[in-house]
Design goal:
The chain is an alpha+beta fold. The chain has three helices and eleven strands; from the N terminus they run E-E-E-H-E-E-H-E-E-E-E-E-E-H.
């Protein structure tokens, strides 16, 4: 039996419910976001319990990243941002306004440099090693794909026939 696949309007790819990994990215120390982050974590954990998601990883990063920073989390965040940017380019999407690059000036030392600003919360979905969804992101028509959209799409897989209890005939 083929795995159930669904199509979402913003994408030309489908989700295969047999090999999904979800990575959740949250910004540390953001006032007023704890409840939303907790809700998203709980929804993803329910998807793991229901075998829709095979693996779930949660990452915390700062709100902004200087591209020149060299510690471990900065390299990880920069690598993820580069991966997300390549994916957006390949799929005709944009990461802005959720992910942005902007120039800041350090008045103390008189330097200008660029920083990457991350969204407060984002979700990446992988089919095997391939990134197939990223929220938030925006398609070429300006339609946003939100974290809520991503979770709803994954939760839809629970509702498909493949995930419904099979009826056992009575003797």
């Amino acid at each position: 039996m083929q795995p159930e696949r669904i199509m979402i309007q913003q994408y030309d790819t489908t989700l295969d419910s047999d090999s999904l990994t979800v990575e959740l990215f949250v910004c540390a120390s953001m006032y007023g976001t704890y409840e939303k982050q907790t809700e998203v974590i709980q929804r993803i954990e329910r998807l793991v319990e229901r075998d829709v998601v095979d693996e779930f990883a949660r990452h915390t990063w700062a709100r902004e990243l200087s591209p020149a920073a060299e510690d471990t989390w900065c390299r990880f965040a920069r690598d993820k941002y580069d991966e997300f940017t390549r994916w957006a380019d390949a799929t005709g999407r944009t990461l802005e306004p959720a992910f942005t690059r902007r120039t800041v000036t350090n008045e103390y030392v008189g330097e200008r440099y660029e920083v990457i600003q991350f969204p407060v919360i984002s979700v990446a979905v992988y089919d095997g090693d391939t990134l197939v969804r990223l929220s938030p992101s925006v398609d070429g028509d300006g339609v946003a794909y939100t974290v809520e959209d991503c979770l709803a799409e994954l939760e839809h897989l629970v509702e498909t026939e493949r995930h419904q209890p099979q009826r056992v005939p009575e003797p």
